[in-house]
Amino acid sequence: MLGWSSTIEAPFVVFFLVASAWAIAVAVLSRREAVRNGALVCGSVLFSMGLVETYMYYANRSQIIITRTEPVEWRRNQADMDIGSRPVPNTTIAFEEALGGRRIDKVTYKFGGSGLREIPASVQGGPYRVVFFGCSFMFGHGVEDDQTLPYYFVRAARGTFEGFNFAGDGWGPHQMLREIETGFISRVAGTPELAIYEAIPDHLRRVAGRAPWEDGPKYDLCPDKQACYSGQYHSADYATCRRWLDRSWIVRFFESHSEKLSQPSDLPLYLAVLKRTRTLLEENGTRFVIVLWDQNELANTIMKALKANQFDVIALSSIFPERDLKNGLLTQLDRHPSPATNQEIAAYLWKQVGEPLVDAKHPR
Asked: Is the same domain home to 118 and 219?
């Protein structure tokens, strides 16, 4: 039943109704009055929950995007790292999204031996290396392997760069920092010449651990304002439980109405994580570049803070016209960058960052 229900859009309707049927069966078959009464109460509550779940599904299905993957469990905690759930190495995932019962995309994710989203070998080159960090925007949520920002950047490099996509769905800069601190980056990509991090305002609450799905590394502000690692926000069991609870329409409704969004008070910890990241990268001669989606007031506050702390940051508004930023033309229905947007950002980064780096090392 669990296997079958994982393929439908409202599995908790089935769970509640089946559990209710079992409780009622116990009430009918039991000879003890206390057990019978308790089972009737449980059955009534579970049946009511099933009705509420059904109502929530039909009331909200036209507003909430449903994702489905095959296999269902394609991420897990890795024993050698404590950054939270990561894609399983050497796997191919069928990813599908639907809105209001209508499919909006169906793509394939491929992961190599290190669990990274693949950048097709046909565009990979050398001798330089570039690593990419960020969340689903950089990872390539809802687009094919050859439609991600890392792919387009490496393709634009015309054989001069080998790229590595270290981004992850739902991640923030704290996963980036932990990947560096544990030596994962150096084991996979050696010493890259360039590191690009794609930032969005929602990363502030993720660093602070307020995203409902957050199971990544926890950082605190030390007395000297440095970012200090202090374990994980939640266990692997929590992450598994969260993935199932996210299938409940009751949970989705209450989460959407009680979100603890990013706020300016999260900036000190966010900046501390980025400073530590920059320090570790620059110690090995890696240039650290940030691309920020500056589409709201909080993003403008983040931009000012990044510039005040001498970060190498590029605003999305410097790449696209203001009308595109305001009209939502840069994202798909799932609110993630479209292939065309990824290609445009990558082309800009290549011209402004990648090509000058190559020319500086090998003047024409």
From this structure: yes
- Euclidean distance between CA atoms 255 and 235, whole angstroms: 20
- Which structure tokens are listed for 283? 């110690």
Residues sharing a CB contact under 8 Å with residue 257, sequence separation 6 or more, in sequence order:
none
Mean pLDDT per 10-residue run, the chain (364 residues)? Answer: 71 90 91 90 94 89 83 78 86 92 91 96 96 97 97 97 96 96 95 98 95 89 91 74 81 77 94 97 97 93 97 96 78 93 97 94 69
Chain length of the chain:
364
Which stretches of the chain are assigned E, i.e. beta strand?
A: 65-70, 75-77, 85-87, 91-99, 102-111, 128-134, 161-165, 194-199, 217-221, 227-232, 287-292, 312-315
Same domain, 122 and 217: yes
Alpha carbon distance 141, 73 (integer Å): 16
> For residue 302, what is the enclosing H or E element?
helix 297-308
The neighbour count for residue 318, using CB atoms within 10 Å, is 12
Buried b (16+ CB within 10 A) or exposed e, 228-264: ebeebbbeeeebbebeeeebbbbbbbeeeeeeeebee
Burial class (CB in 10 A: 0-12, 13-18, 19+), 355: middle
Determine the Cα–Cα distance for residues 345 and 331; give it in Å rounded to an integer: 13
Q: What are phi and psi of 161, to 5 degrees?
A: -125, 145
Asked if residue 53 and residue 69 are part of one domain, the reply reads no
Strand positions, DSSP E, 42-119:
65-70, 75-77, 85-87, 91-99, 102-111
Distance CA 174, CA 192 (A): 19
Total domains in the chain come to 2
Sequence-ordered list of residues with C-beta below 8 angstroms from that of 38, at least 6 positions apart, any chain: none
Q: Based on the domain organization, do 33 and 127 belong to the same domain?
A: no
pTM here is 0.88
- 99 and 241 inside one domain: yes
Boundaries of domain holding 261: 65-361
Euclidean distance between CA atoms 28 and 7, whole angstroms = 32
Answer yes or no: do 112 and 19 share one domain: no
Q: For residue 248, which amino acid is it?
A: S
